[in-house]
Design brief:
With about 350 residues, the chain is α+β, with helices and mostly antiparallel strands. It is built from 9 helices and 17 strands. The chain has helices at about 30-45, 55-65, 70-80, 85-95, 180-190, 195-205, 250-255, 260-270, 275-280; strands spanning about 15-25, 105-110, 120-125, 135, 145-150, 155-160, 165-170, 210-215, 220-225, 235, 240, 290-295, 300-305, 310-315, 320-325, 335-340, 340-345. The strands form 2 sheets. It has a 10-stranded mixed sheet with strand order 10-9-8-7-6-5-4-1-16-17, with helices on one face. Strands 2, 3, 11, 12, 13, 14 and 15 form a 7-stranded antiparallel sheet that branches. Strand 4 (about 135) and strand 5 form a beta hairpin. The chain is globular.
Amino acid sequence: MVYDLEPGDGSTPAMHLRFRSIDEAEPGAKWKAHLEEAWPAYHRWFLREGESKRPSYLRSSRMLAQYMPELVPLWERLTALGGGGDHVARLLSLYRPTPYLAGCSQAVWSRPDGAEPLLVRNYDYHPALCEGTLLLTAWHGTKVIAMSDCLWGVLDGLNEHGLAVSLAFGGRPDVGEGFGVPLVLRYVLEFSRTTEDAVRVLQRVPSHMAYNVSVLDASGAHATVEVGPEHAAVVSHDRVATNHQRHGLWPAHAVRTATEERKQVLEQRLDDAGETRAGFIDGFLEAPLFGTDYAHALGTLYTATYAPAGRWMELRWRDHAWRRSFAAFEEEELLVAYGPDGSSPVPGPAASSTAALG
């Protein structure tokens, strides 16, 4: 993987991303190898605004203990695996991290006939700034399958209780006191069982930037939670979330990301009685949901589908897919190329053992 470029910096983007699926119940050699590979770029990100802009170790540890105390022993364990340094600990706390923006579209597919509900999402970002790592863990006794971000955070994921979550940038540039939302989603999947549980966490734990979080559980209960640093969490039963919130619109970002257009398209497809589940998922691989402006962090890196009732998930690219479940999780690697026409696997062996990580 390449992590060096910043979105929109004018450089020629690295248009390849290696995806990996890793099975490691407890933090160990595989996670440590992942950290060591990604650390130089994450360290640069941590220091991008200057070290004084990042909260101290004391404040970071206090905030983590105040809002997510159950995570503290794991945070300390991961910090130790990372060498125990001050910067490692502060970065992993994800308390008021360096700001970052992304795109994303997400929706809950459900039908009144009792068909299995799904959470479907596109993750839109720069290929050079995504870990591309799907982790199966059991760090607190609950199995979790999740796309990793910030080394132990979650972009989207599912736990063995049948709870699925995903995030989308909320379309506002405000930065305040709070945590990077990927860590909040990790906390949700580690300790929540239902949508109601997840909503309570999202209402209580502060987010340092605006995000829209979609939640779906095995019973079919769903919610969209709009979080941000300057307002209380807004909870709705909306089935669609893109990149704007009720608390305000960032007009330039809204136009650039077509957030309102994408939301309208998804709502129309959900309301269409003739729309099939397969067709709905396929629609995420086409415009306007599928983006190709990778150089400005607005290209679709993958489509994810989560089935809480069936306890399975799938990552999709054009012409390729990974299906995973808690009963059947294979370790693989896949190199994906990104260009003006979208994404496609690089010709050659699609899968290889990740044993080298151990």
